[in-house]
Automatic annotation (TrEMBL):
Classification lineage: Eukaryota, Metazoa, Chordata, Craniata, Vertebrata
Organism: Erithacus rubecula
Name of this chain's protein: Alkaline phosphatase
Record text on subunit structure and interactions: Homodimer.
Enzyme Commission number(s) of this protein: 3.1.3.1
GO molecular function, one term: alkaline phosphatase activity
Length: 552
């Protein structure tokens, strides 16, 4: 479906659009596709969840236009790769305690399957923000964690720090989204036994691929950063003196080496993905290191490419920092070798060291930075579609929340998405089509609003004007779209609570609490059967059972 659904919306000559036949023909083709659409009722072997932080409907629409204009078109008739998915729902984003949510509460919803309180991660609504003691007994497990327990490979790709709220909801249980390292935690929380998010990244879930930013939270205080050794502000921050990168490497290499060498000794290593473990887990911190990792040489890869968050795509050093497309491809190539399948979470939420992302691009009032991030996420969606098959891979694209971002002003067809409205405002001053409801773009000079102008408004760091002065622009509370293709994609329909996303994914892949639903046993047999003949797998199973007996 990803290859055909968008065909009727290809670019067209302006003259053709003036004839009723053009629109009638296009509508007929879409009707034919709709009538041929059948639910893919088989279970999903693989799941990829793409999450555009702050990518509301207005951001998606503007990103579509920007994509088309980058390609030389007028933009409006362009089609995002994610928009070719045949199934769609809307998700309500409120949290238990907030009408307008944050990324931690929403992450807990779409990854763990329960609505929660804002600023808390991987905890039910019984937990209280900032109160360590409310953590214990209120933990909820993510779909990623359940997929790993089911024998699937799992991975996280993000353009922010890997300890950030959205990816952290996949593995952490924290009463505060801000407890990145022990240095960020109050003494009371440490005394009561709570662990920082970086510690939980390494020890909570056996995550096969971890790609993003966040080096400083992993290393001891004053440890020089490998990329910025002369900048003390980029040094490690941990007060406990631990090097979590070294801990992760040591644990994975020892475990993998023992398992891989044992399997190799039994003569079945070449048939099983875990046998690559004996060559060791890998840690990299730049694009060169990532590119040097051979897909079949590791089963565990950690890549941390900035001390905190990765840079905007428009500011990215292409020789030292990988793009979200490159990270997504590397993750899929490693994860897909697991015969049981995989779960991959991909988030675009990028900042330069001063601040930003799809989300923070909006927070800082810089629309061009935000929209470029949305375009890059869509390119990652397209590349993932080339590397997987909708026959066995459920791909879901959504957002955690939206922003007070809009574009209007009766602009003509083909107007630059960052351009000016054709008429001046009541104050007789020009304004951009894109505006924010609040944020740092508010400005009064000499008692009046400054006039917008070109080419300044086209600059990547231009701040669009805002109606209300705030230090940072805020999230908004409207529903977000959920797009899906692949097995069980038809489960995404109508208007749903946001936590439904986690349940639909778990059901589609036969993960807890739906592991014993009808069709799951046959799905597990089928996923193993697609990798190699039954005899080696039966032999491997017998050997594994024998090993467990001996070790027990």
């Amino acid at each position: 479906w990803g290859c055909t659904w968008g065909l009727p919306a290809l670019l067209s000559p302006p003259d053709a659009e003036k004839t009723p036949g053009y629109w009638n023909k296009g509508a007929r083709r879409r009707l034919e596709l709709a009538m041929a659409l059948q639910p893919a009722a088989q279970r999903a072997k693989n799941i990829i969840l793409f999450m555009g932080d702050g990518m509301g409907l207005s951001t998606m629409s503007a990103a579509r236009i920007y994509k088309g204009q980058l390609a030389g078109g007028s933009g409006e008739e362009s089609v995002l790769a994610m928009e070719t998915f045949p199934h769609m729902a809307l998700a309500k984003t409120y949290t238990i305690d907030r009408q307008v949510p944050d990324s931690a509460g929403t992450g807990t919803a779409y990854l763990c399957g329960v609505k929660a309180n804002a600023k808390t991660l991987g905890l039910s609504g019984a937990a209280v923000y900032g109160k360590c003691h409310s953590t214990f007994g209120n933990e909820v497990d993510s779909v990623l964690h359940r997929a790993r327990l089911a024998g699937k490979a799992v991975g996280i790709v993000t353009t922010t720090r890997v300890q950030h709220a959205s990816p952290a909801a996949a593995y952490a249980h924290s009463a505060s989204r801000g407890w990145y390292a022990d240095a960020n935690m109050p003494r009371e929380a440490l005394r009561d036994g709570c662990k920082d998010i970086a510690d939980q990244l390494v020890h909570n879930t056996d995550i096969n691929v971890i790609l993003g930013g966040g080096r400083m939270y992993m290393t001891p205080k004053r440890t020089p950063d490998p990329e910025y050794p002369e900048d003390p502000e980029q040094n490690g921050t941990r007060k406990d003196g631990r090097d979590l990168i070294a801990e992760w490497l040591s644990a994975k290499q020892v475990a993998c080496r023992e398992e891989g060498m044992w399997l190799q000794a039994q003569g079945v290593c070449h048939r099983h993905w875990l046998c690559s473990c004996w060559q060791g887990a890998r840690y990299v911190w730049d694009k060169k290191g990532l590119d040097a990792v051979e897909d079949d040489s590791v089963s565990h890869l950690m890549g941390l490419f900035e001390p905190k968050d990765m840079r905007y795509e428009l500011n990215r050093n292409t020789s030292t920092d990988p793009s979200i497309v490159e990270m997504t491809e590397k993750a899929i190539r490693i994860l897909r070798r697991n015969p049981n399948g995989f779960f991959l979470f991909v988030e675009d939420d990028r900042v330069p060291r001063a601040g930003g992302r799809i989300d923070h691009g909006h927070h800082s009032g810089r629309a061009k930075q935000a929209l470029m991030e949305a375009v890059m996420l869509d390119r990652a969606v397209a590349r993932a579609g080339e590397l997987t098959s909708p026959a066995d891979t459920l791909t879901v694209v959504t957002a955690d929340h939206s922003h007070v971002f809009t574009f209007g002003g009766s602009t003509p067809r083909g107007n630059s998405i960052f351009g000016l409205a054709p008429k001046k405002a009541k104050d007789k001053r020009a304004y951009t089509s894109i505006l924010y409801g609040n944020g740092p773009g508010y400005s009064i000079r000499d008692g009046a609003r400054p006039a917008a102008s070109l080419p300044a408004a086209e600059d990547k760091d231009y701040r669009q004007q805002a109606a209300v002065p705030l230090e940072t622009e805020t999230h908004s509370g409207e529903d977000v779209v959920v797009l899906a293709q692949g097995p069980m994609a038809h489960l995404f329909h109508g208007v749903q609570e946001q936590h439904y996303i986690a349940h639909a994914m778990a059901y589609a892949a036969c993960l807890e609490p739906y592991a014993t639903e009808p069709g799951c046993r046959a799905a597990r047999r089928a996923s193993r059967g697609t990798q190699c003949s039954p005899q080696p797998l039966l032999a491997l199973l017998a050997l594994c059972m024998a090993a467990l007996t001996v070790r027990g």
